[in-house]
Amino acid sequence: MSSSAAAKPVLYAMYASSCSWRVRIALNLKQIPYDIQSISLLKPVPDTVFSNTDEYRKVNPMQQVPALHIDGHTLCDSVAIMHYLDETRPSNPLLPHDALQRAKVREIVQIICSGIQPLQNAAVLTQIGKEKYLPWAQQWISRGFRGLEQVLASSAGKYSVGDAFTMADCCLVPQVFNARRYEVDLEPYPNIVRLERELSAVPAISAGHPLRQPDCPPELASK
Amino acid sequence: MSSSAAAKPVLYAMYASSCSWRVRIALNLKQIPYDIQSISLLKPVPDTVFSNTDEYRKVNPMQQVPALHIDGHTLCDSVAIMHYLDETRPSNPLLPHDALQRAKVREIVQIICSGIQPLQNAAVLTQIGKEKYLPWAQQWISRGFRGLEQVLASSAGKYSVGDAFTMADCCLVPQVFNARRYEVDLEPYPNIVRLERELSAVPAISAGHPLRQPDCPPELASK
């Protein structure tokens, strides 16, 4: 293994980014030590790199978080990164063995990562504007959660798909965090709420919580 | 194999849906015969099922296309379906063997499936409204294509990642089709345009073209 491959992975992340949290959960679950390079998505913040810089464009051409420098390479996109970690570090797997179960996990992953999160991310909400962003975010999260609730009603056991932790769980908790942030009424989604409560006790998830990240503003951070 | 497992797969699809086209390409590439159940996303069309029905909600809780009934089960989401097909029908693979190359394929897949398509799908554009939908679609496609172009500049060979066809290619051509539909200026993206030209000659792609689908209105259909 080259020295670059043996170096500690570096996660380019932002505390409030749900996509960053997904990868923090996966890294924690697999007990992979990593350093954090904090990235500011929307405006310069002390001790962070602004995402809209030529420097960061070299890291991630989409100028988004997360990106992960690992094994001498920089990988982008949370779903691609979770799969890479699972394929190269198979202990504490993020996917079941059975192909149908894997398809169910990926369906949930994509409902969240393609069907919900992109429509309520910071760049889109900025575009929608101050007066309309909240009902916009609520509408799209609620629409996605209605479908997700129906999927989980038949797929979930202790976790999102059966009783084993998967990458669906890495995605679920951060999305519920966003839902609360945008004041979505969660009452119609008992399975989502039950799973979030169960999952919040998993150390890999709680250790990656946005309010426990180095770039979280002190006035917000958990004590 | 049970009779339901041996039955011909049924693809729930809409001719103009880029996500449906991704799966048509994967099925064609793997030479899996299938039947089509046409779904109308926005309004009832003769000989189709309207997606906003209780009947279709039982097929896909997200009320989106595609869904695929195969091996006695109904799978939802194009990315989950492509992975399932690749894991259960490994001939003509949709992913490389190398983990880093797989991460690159999935990065491209997610740039398109999470970073671009969700922001320009029919439901979102309807919400944005008649007067603003075109610049909205153009802005988000262009933003995504700027990042995608940079990724492809280093990843592409004959196809999106090296010289072998992958699920990145299944996603690329349908997204370029959407870009043209929304009159995006493609001049700044020579790699995207070059790959689309190369890929359009692949029979699995051309056979799945929206204008060759049974629910394509006759006045639009290719002769």
TrEMBL record, chains A, B:
One of its GO terms (cellular component) is mitochondrion. Pfam families: GST_C_2, GST_N_3. This is maleylacetoacetate isomerase. SUPFAM superfamilies: GST C-terminal domain-like, Thioredoxin-like. Residues 98-218 form the GST C-terminal domain. The keyword Repressor does not apply. NCBIfam families: maiA. Its cofactor is glutathione. Keywords: Phenylalanine catabolism, Tyrosine catabolism. One of its GO terms (biological process) is glutathione metabolic process. Pathway: Amino-acid degradation; L-phenylalanine degradation; acetoacetate and fumarate from L-phenylalanine: step 5/6. One of its GO terms (molecular function) is maleylacetoacetate isomerase activity. PROSITE patterns: GST_CTER, GST_NTER.
